[in-house]
Structures are given as structure tokens and as C-alpha cells.
Write a structure and sequence with these properties.
transmembrane, membrane, two-stranded antiparallel sheet, single chain, Purine permease, NCS2, Xan_ur_permease, 24 helices
């Protein structure tokens, strides 16, 4: 090196890189400035359309030409949280967010209604209430309201909320306990077939119990996020999410694919549920009939084909495409009962139908565990939303987003019960919409909330959702629940999988998967206790519900073992390391052995 090439001066300070965004960021306007800005936005082409590549968003893709297209065409600009967003793009992105989460919002109330044998009017209302409640509470979650000090309400991101699948899994166990202890009516036929009667009061008990348990998550929001992450690391969170998805596939997805998750899945030889979904359906068939399997498979394959050939817009709503294709074929074949559409009101809103809000004591302990899992989910989903929105995932601002998101989740759980909706959680699938559309602007999120509320207010839409045949719903929800389990696997991938990690996971999955495969193993745990009083029996029922819920059992084992097993800095995979000797790389090794 020449001495002239050596630089003796220190380099000048370089400014920190900033995230580029399309268009100028929002400014603080006065009253006159706001009016002028609004007038320009609604009266100019740039305010309506902007510079976004809408053809890229709507054009289908050919898989074999993707590599060439990536080389010749760049994606649209990225719209950050506070960028100026064209009106049409905001509406289009908001519609994608609404449609992407639609299947996840309508599935829990449909499953709740089927589990409790509720009539079509009540079921349609539950769907509408879910859509309206999620739209309203998503607005709260997307806000970032300063409360006091450094405490906030909401994340300030596109963090939409929906009915938690964790609640769905736990509620099924609670409903089973209510039918078992006589809280809900049921009849037993001569052949031993048990038929559940309508039990709307059970839903009211879940709502009432949820209200009082929501204060646990509200209290957790004021704990430092660093402490929460230490207590609930990815090992615990991932285990819980995997078991939630797996249990829902087994309890709802696959049974509905076969014809129904109600009493017809047992293939009774007589009675109202001798055929699926029941003998009064337009074309009832035995559970597991090839016609049902084919309908579900058609919906499932439609999702795959949409992912393969669809435009970015369609890929974001592939689950809705699967539902639409399945319903079209099912309607043509005569499997759809349109009575739910005709009986549904044209316009509806919250509290058109109400439930008796009461507390079911045996459900308190399981619901507390549900809210702990909701807080764990919220931390992971907020982190993912921040990453895809290109905002910092470290520092005080990010910690305040987690605090505000968990607090909004807890308050949302309390308010959702007042809205006659079960506890809500942040939906992670909307992060994919942000990544594909490159739009993280909260205006798009607000449009999403407007669409959700509109879908809920239009009661006929809920009637349409309720008319979806079980096999079509099963084929789609099986995929939907599998994405939940896949999200858990992704969270688990953050672990180093040391010997300690593998030990904890093995112990957790031993109980979780075992409970999933043999769900009745803990049902008779306290049968030997003679004549327990009412309080003691309630405690036994509560423990049984926890032990009979796979994700609660697995999460509890993972949590306890993660806390009590010591961390070893030298913990590694030495026991699994095998020394590999490349003989070809040592050509003279044999000669050396001969000489020796």
C-alpha cells in the first residue's frame, strides 16, 4: 500500500438513515390550513389517486414468470405511519385489511352458536356484534392516547383486533363442563346419544366471567415489557400458539370439514343429528361423506390456487376467495339453506339481542389464563407490526407501544363483553397485508374499521355468513387454524434450541399433545371425592377445565419449567456434536498410518 493512500483525517459525522416514505408527512395545521389541505385532497387527482401502482396491486401473477418480473418491475412506494395517503389507496388498503380478517371474525361466533345449539337469529346477531365490536375496538387499539406520565392507550400502529382463538378453545371446554354439570340442558337417547339443548345463558356466563378477568391484563400492562418478555419468552408464547392452532383444527376445523362439529360427528343411528348438519338440512348426509369432503377440499384448493396465481390483492383475501368458491359450488349443488338470510334483519347493531351477564365460578381460573395468553400474543404481534411498519422495535417508544397495546387489549376485553362479544386479541395476519401493499398508514386502518362496522350493521351479510355450509367452512378454517399453529412455530424458531430449551418444549408438548389426542384423560380426576360442597366442586371443575384445555396445560408447564430450570451459559449442543473427519482432504493419512 502506498503511503499516499493512508488517510490521517477522521471522517465527518454522517446523519442517521431515515425510513423513506411516499409523500410528505402530516403536519400540524391550523383551522384554515386544515380546510385548505382537505379541499386540495378531495378536489385533486393526486389527493384521490396519488402515485401508487394500482396495476401491480390488481394484476394476477404467473409463478413461472416471477423471477423475471422481479427484475424488470419494482414495487410501489412505502407509505409510513404519518405519510400523506391517497383516498382511493386508503380505502383499497382498508378493504384488504377488513377482508383479510373477516374469516377470523365470523368463525368464533359461528362455532359458539353451534356449540350451544342457538337459533339462527341469535347466531346472526353474534356475527354482527363481533364485526361491529371489533371495528370499534380496533379504532381504540390503533390510537395512541397519552394517559399520564409515559403510559398510553393503544399502539399507534395498524393493530386490528378480533375474537381470540384462545377464547374459542377455552370456551369449548367451559361449555362441556356446563353441559356435564347440568347448567345447560341435554337429553340422552336410548342408544346413548347425547343431544345438547339451546343454552344462551352459557354464553352470558362466559361474557360475565370475561369482564372480571379482564382486569388481570389491564394490570399486566403496567408491568415493564422487559419483565413480561422475561417471564413469557418465545418458548412459552410459541408453545401456547402452536397448541391453540392444533386444538382448533381437531375440535372445529376437521369436524366441520366432515359435515359438522355438532352431535352429527358421532354418526348416531337415529335422532335429529343422524345426518349432518341435521336431518332438516336441504341435503343432509352422514358425517364424513365424500360430498362433504369434496366441498371442503375445493375451498382448500382455491386458497392454494389464489396464492399461486392471484394478484397481491387476492392473495391478501385468499381465505375469502376459498369461502366464495366453495359457497358458489355448494349453492349450485343445493347444500345451502337460505333461511338464515331471509330471517336476518336488514339493519342491526349492538344490544339488539342481549344475554344474561353472570359469572361462572369454575371458568374464572381458565379465563385468567386466557388473558395471560392474550398479553403474550399482544407482545409478539405488536413487535411484528412495528417491524413491518418500519418503526423502531427497541427503546422507550417501542416499550410504550407494547404497554399501550396490552392495556388496550385488557380494556377491550372488558368492553367487548359489554358489546356481547368474547375477549379480543390483536390479529397478526394483517401484518402480511402491510408487507404486501407497503402501506402502514393508520388512515388505511381506520377505513378497515369503517368497513367492519358497515359489514356488521348490514344484518343480511351476517345471514349470508351463517348460511355457509359446514364443509366449506371447515376446509377454510382448517387452513386458518393451521396458520395460527404456523405462527407459533415461527415464534419457537427464535429459540436457540439448546438442551434446556428442548427439555422444556418436550415436557410442555407431552401434556399439550397428549391432552389434545386424549381429551378425556383428566375428566374423571376428582370422581373419587365423595360429596364435595358447592365451592369445592367449583374448584374441581375449574381445575378440570384447565387440565382439559391443551394450550393452557402446555403453556403452564412451559412457564413453570422455564422459571425454575437454571440458565447455563455453557448450555450447548455438545452432546449432539459429532466430529466429522474428511478423509479425502487428508490424502496422506493412510501412508502415515502405514509408516507408523
Amino acid at each position: 500500500m502506498s503511503i499516499r493512500s493512508v488517510t490521517t483525517e477522521q471522517p465527518e459525522k454522517v446523519s442517521s438513515p431515515s425510513v423513506s416514505s411516499a409523500g410528505p408527512t402530516k403536519r400540524r395545521w391550523g383551522a384554515g390550513g386544515r380546510f385548505k389541505h382537505l379541499r386540495e385532497k378531495v378536489t385533486t387527482r393526486h389527493g384521490w389517486v396519488g402515485d401508487y401502482d394500482y396495476a401491480w396491486l390488481c394484476m394476477p401473477t404467473a409463478p413461472w414468470r416471477r423471477s423475471r418480473a422481479k427484475q424488470t418491475r419494482t414495487g410501489p412506494p412505502f407509505y409510513a405511519l404519518d405519510s400523506e395517503l391517497p383516498i382511493i389507496l386508503a380505502a383499497a388498503s382498508g378493504l384488504q385489511h377488513a377482508l383479510a380478517m373477516l374469516a377470523g371474525l365470523i368463525t368464533p361466533p359461528i362455532i359458539f352458536a353451534n356449540a350451544l345449539s342457538l337459533d339462527s337469529k341469535t347466531s346472526a346477531y353474534m356475527i354482527s356484534a363481533s364485526l361491529i365490536g371489533c371495528g370499534i375496538l380496533s379504532l381504540v387499539q390503533m390510537s395512541r392516547l397519552r394517559l399520564f406520565g409515559n403510559y398510553f392507550l393503544g399502539t399507534g400502529l395498524i393493530s386490528v383486533v378480533g375474537t381470540s382463538f384462545a377464547t374459542l378453545s377455552t370456551a369449548n371446554a367451559i361449555f362441556n363442563a356446563m353441559y356435564a354439570d347440568g347448567t345447560c340442558p341435554s337429553t340422552t337417547a336410548a342408544d346413548g346419544t347425547v343431544t345438547r339443548g339451546p343454552c344462551p345463558d352459557a354464553y352470558g356466563m362466559v361474557l360475565g366471567t370475561s369482564m372480571i378477568c379482564a382486569f388481570l391484563e389491564i394490570g399486566m400492562s403496567f408491568v415493564s415489557p422487559r419483565i413480561l418478555k422475561r417471564v413469557f419468552p418465545p418458548m412459552v408464547t410459541g408453545t401456547v400458539i402452536v397448541m391453540i392452532g392444533a386444538s382448533l383444527i381437531g375440535s372445529s376445523g376437521i369436524p366441520n370439514w366432515g359435515g359438522g362439529s355438532n352431535d352429527c360427528s358421532g354418526r348416531p343411528t337415529s335422532g335429529f343429528f343422524e345426518l349432518c348438519p341435521n336431518i332438516a338440512a336441504p341435503r343432509p348426509l352422514p358425517w364424513g361423506s365424500p360430498e362433504f369432503i369434496g366441498l371442503g377440499f375445493l375451498s382448500f384448493v382455491s386458497i392454494i390456487l389464489t396464492e399461486l396465481f392471484g394478484s397481491p390483492f387476492l392473495k391478501n383475501i385468499s381465505v375469502i376467495v376459498g369461502l366464495a368458491v366453495g359457497c358458489i359450488v355448494a349453492g349450485a349443488a343445493g347444500y345451502i339453506d337460505g333461511s338464515s338470510i331471509t330471517t336476518a334483519p336488514a339493519i342491526t347493531f349492538l344490544w339488539v339481542h342481549t344475554f344474561k351477564i353472570r359469572v361462572y365460578a369454575p371458568a374464572i381460573l381458565p379465563m385468567l389464563a386466557v388473558y395471560v395468553s392474550l398479553a403474550m400474543e399482544a407482545i409478539g404481534d405488536i413487535t411484528a407490526s412495528a417491524e413491518v411498519s418500519r418503526v423502531s422495535v427497541v427503546g422507550e417508544e417501542f416499550d410504550s407501544r407494547i404497554q399501550g397495546g396490552v392495556l388496550s387489549d385488557g380494556i377491550g376485553g372488558f368492553l367487548s363483553a359489554l358489546f356481547t362479544v368474547t375477549p379480543l386479541s390483536i390479529f397478526a395476519q394483517n401484518n402480511g397485508v402491510i408487507a404486501i401493499t407497503r402501506c402502514a398508514n393508520r388512515t388505511a386502518g381506520r377505513f378497515c374499521c369503517v368497513f367492519l362496522i358497515l359489514f356488521g350493521v348490514l344484518g343480511k351479510i351476517s345471514g349470508v355468513f351463517l348460511a355457509i355450509p359446514n364443509p366449506v367452512l371447515g376446509g377454510v378454517t382448517t387452513f386458518l387454524f393451521a396458520t395460527v399453529a404456523t405462527s407459533g412455530v415461527r415464534v419457537l424458531s427464535y429459540n436457540r434450541f439448546t438442551r434446556r430449551d428442548r427439555f422444556v418444549l418436550a415436557a410442555a408438548f407431552s401434556f399439550g399433545i397428549g391432552d389434545l389426542l386424549v381429551p378425556t384423560i383428566f375428566t374423571h380426576l376428582f370422581d373419587a371425592v365423595r360429596s364435595p360442597n358447592k365451592g369445592l366442586q367449583g374448584l374441581f371443575d375449574s381445575i378440570t377445565i384447565v387440565l382439559s384445555t391443551p394450550f393452557l396445560m402446555a403453556g403452564l408447564v412451559a412457564l413453570v419449567l422455564n422459571l425454575i430450570l437454571p440458565q447455563d451459559d455453557a448450555d450447548g449442543d455438545d452432546d449432539d456434536v459429532v466430529e466429522v473427519v474428511d478423509v479425502e482432504a487428508q490424502p496422506h493419512s493412510k501412508e502415515k498410518e502405514l509408516h507408523n
